[in-house]
Amino acid sequence: MAKQKLKVGLIGSGAIAREQHLPYWRELEEEGRIDLLGVCDLISERCETEAGKSKGAKPYLDYRKMLKEYHFDIIDVCTQNRGHAPITIDALNAGAHVIVEKPMAMNVKECKAMIAAQKKNKRKLMVAQHMRFEAGAEKLKEVAESGALGQIYASEAKWLRRRGIPGWGKFHIAKESLGGPMIDIGVHMMDLCVWLMGCPKPVAASGKVYRMFGDREDLFNADWGRPYPPKEFDVEDHATGFVRFEKGITMHVTVTWAANVAEETGGVTVLGDKAGIMTNPLGVYGADHSTLTSSKWDWLSPEDGHRREVRHFCECVEKNLDVRVQPWQSLNIQKIIDAIYLSSKLNKEVPIK
Ligand SMILES: NC(=O)c1ccc[n+]([C@@H]2O[C@H](COP(=O)([O-])OP(=O)(O)OC[C@H]3O[C@@H](n4cnc5c(N)ncnc54)[C@H](O)[C@@H]3O)[C@@H](O)[C@H]2O)c1
Q1: pTM of this prediction?
Q2: Lower Cβ count inside 10 Å, N or C end of the chain?
Q3: Order of strands across the sheet with 275-279?
Q4: Whole-angstrom distance, CA of residue 17 vs CA of residue 21
């Protein structure tokens, strides 16, 4: 008997969907594993163009209508952050497994509601943290899980851009996105860092967020220009935080869209008493009696993490496997984010429950 193909729909066919999700769903369609049946966007040109690239896909302007037309196995949510929770919950309630772009949602309450819907409907839910799927990250995770780091005690999650505020979408508007670099690139760095440490439970955070460039008339945003009016910019463009986890583990976070630094830099560092791991430069760093050691990989697959992530989610649904990015892990990242924003407002460390 021919294997049943999974019915897939995508909601929000903007930049990330067009460039990083839909090409990989189409690849799976060519392999005969899925049927892409619907592409939805509020902007008709976007959903029509993207649906038009697949034989059987129809464009939709209303995702609720799309959810009613098929019994989807998988819904991929790629809207702005504001849509993540309500659309995910509707899709789970319609019986679909859901992969949703990062960040999980706009706050902890929404994340909990998503997890409740996932449990109630016994579906899979995964936040698209594609960096966990890059070959280098997978190698570092293997090393960390082998116990070679010894006792993990401190870490750093960092991404600094000199002038690189996203120049498309609604990244700069708080009611659409929640925040600035903390939400855009900070989520990636923190998720990777916490995952490499074995997902310890966060217990407290302090932080400060700043808006120093984004709303200035004279902003020179070298990487992407500035297509938005400065008055619209109401998120932070620089954020820093210090997070405490159980067992005394800590994480220092610094993320920025615009800062007066020499060049774009960043990465994740996890320190253990036997060895440390870094994504930049990628490797394992330790000591052996009186010598310092480092080990690197000569060649790692350059395959896009987004491709591996989409294929992983498809396989998890096909074979009923656990997803790599568990919803409770993404909830913990959201707890850290909420705590850093609150701490910035209150000017003191806040507990995380
Ligand atoms: N993983 C990554 O590296 C990465 C990179 C960029 C963006 N993202 C995430 O992807 C998401 C989208 O970002 P983007 O850059 O593609 O933004 P975008 O603005 O280009 O695309 C979002 C699209 O969603 C559509 N949309 C919004 N609400 C909708 C609704 N109710 N129904 C149907 N369509 C709706 C918009 O019309 C728009 O076309 C964000 O959550 C962002 O954080 C992730």
Answers
A1: 0.97
A2: N
A3: 291-295, 282-288, 275-279, 265-272, 152-160, 250-256, 238-245, 202-210, 350-351
A4: 5
Say yes or no: CB of residue 15 within 6 Å of ligand 1.
yes
Q: What domains does the chain contain, in order, with CATH numbers? A: 6-128 (3.40.50.720), 132-306+333-351 (3.30.360.10)
Answer yes or no: is the C-beta of 132 below 6 A from any ligand 1 atom.
no
CA 244 – ligand 1 centroid, Å: 31
Q: How far apart are CA 180 and CA 300, in angstroms?
A: 31
Q: Is pLDDT at 210 greater than 80 in this prediction?
A: yes
Question: CA triplet 293, 296, 299: central angle to 5 degrees?
Answer: 160
Q: Look up tokens 């006792």; give the residue.
A: 151
Q: Which of 42, 80, 90, 170 to mutate to test the pocket of ligand 1 (most atoms within 8 A of CB)?
A: 80
Q: Ligand 1, closest atom to CA 79?
A: 24
Give the pLDDT confidence score for residue 2 in this predicted structure.
Answer: 67
Say yes or no: CB of residue 305 within 6 Å of ligand 1.
no
pLDDT range class, residue 224, cuts 50, 70, 90: confident
